[in-house]
Amino acid sequence: MSTSEQKTITVIGSGLIGRSWAMVFASGGYWVKIYDNQAGQAARAVMEIRKQLEELEEAHMLRGDLTSTQQLALLSSYEDLAQALEGAFFVQECVFEQLEVKQRVFQEIECFVGKEVILSSSTSCLVPSSVFAKVQERSRCLVSHPVNPPYYVKLVELVPHPETVTAVMEATHYLMIKVGQAPVLLKKEIDGFALNRVQAAIIAESWRLVQDGVISVKDIDLVMSEGLGMRYAFIGPMETMHLNAPEGLEDYMRRYGEGITRVLNSFGPVPDFFGEPAKGVIKEMCELIPSDHQHLSARKERRDLLLMHLAKLKNDR
């Protein structure tokens, strides 16, 4: 199942993730059909993408070999699902993170596409066996979970349905590489996939340390942004361990495995993120960064700018 000659991709849903996927696919030279069942939404998405592509080009951060004008010419908007799916070899779903909605969308999609068309979901927390439970041909289904914002953070988790055939995983992996993403292959589905499981572990221990009075919100964020994050932006935890002992990973565990086990055994239960103890953590965070729209939008813009520059630095390595 080769994607080399097939050039049309349909993106279902024109929100933030849908727009980001459309930009990523267009940067790789693919024709992209954006579908949204809300009147005018897909057309507005194309207008928003135009603005973003022009800004990226002006900042010399535009992805791909095509100009912003050339990439924009590859985009089209649709309110009719059948028309949006016509000619597509790959469908990327980006609708609300509600199981029933996603299941209904894929049932509708299957009515208009052939058995060879790959069906991919952007879900971040629903396993493929649930998302595609009502699809007839599940061998061509998978999750392609992006990291927000996908245009700057290139990781994509490819998660198979238990019935997904190898050719579908390989074709999607090829597609993601071709459009400049960094795909990772999960061998089987698991709740949270890989990224969110690692992230959940970090969130839980960070929350516990703040809630137990060990460290402040500001300083636990510095532990990541000025410590672990600086390292892990370029090499992961497994390679870090492998490089941090004279004879590699096995040697590292001989030296430090007992201490790591002791620390892990000291971890407390999953924190209560909603009850009375959580209020102190939330209050401390809001004192640092107020939770009103203006402050949060400004911080998100700063985050995206930093991610842009980090992405460029990684590309230039």
Fold and architecture overview:
By secondary structure, this protein is α/β, with parallel strands linked by helices. The protein has 13 helices and eight strands. Strands 3-2-1-4-5-6-7-8 form an eight-stranded mixed β-sheet, with helices on both faces. Strand 5, helix 6 and strand 6 form a beta-alpha-beta unit. Helix 1 crosses helix 2. The longest helix is centred in the last third of the chain and has 23 residues, at 293-315. The protein is globular. The two termini are 33 Å apart. The mean pLDDT is 94.
Secondary-structure topology with pairs:
Layout (H helix, E strand, L loop, with lengths): L7 E5 L3 H12 L3 E5 L5 H18 L9 H5 L2 E4 L2 H5 L4 E4 L5 H12 L7 E4 L6 H4 L9 E6 L8 E6 L5 H13 L3 E4 L9 H17 L5 H16 L4 H7 L5 H17 L10 H13 L4 H23 L2
Parallel strand pairs: 1-2, 1-4, 2-3, 4-5, 5-6, 7-8
Antiparallel strand pairs: 6-7
Helix pairs in contact: 1-2, 10-11
- The residue ranges in which pLDDT falls below 50 over 5 or more consecutive positions are none
The arrangement of helices and strands along the chain is: EHEHHEHEHEHEEHEHHHHHH
Please tell me how large the radius of gyration is: 21 Å
What integer is the average pLDDT?
94
Report, as a whole number of angstroms, the end-to-end distance.
33 Å
Instruction: Provide the helix percentage.
Output: 40-55%
Q: Main sheet: which strands, in order across?
A: 3-2-1-4-5-6-7-8
- What's the count of strands? 8
> Helix/strand-derived class?
alpha/beta
The count of helical stretches stands at 13
Strand percentage:
5-15%
**Strand count, sense and closure of the main sheet?**
8 strands, mixed
Characterize the overall form: globular
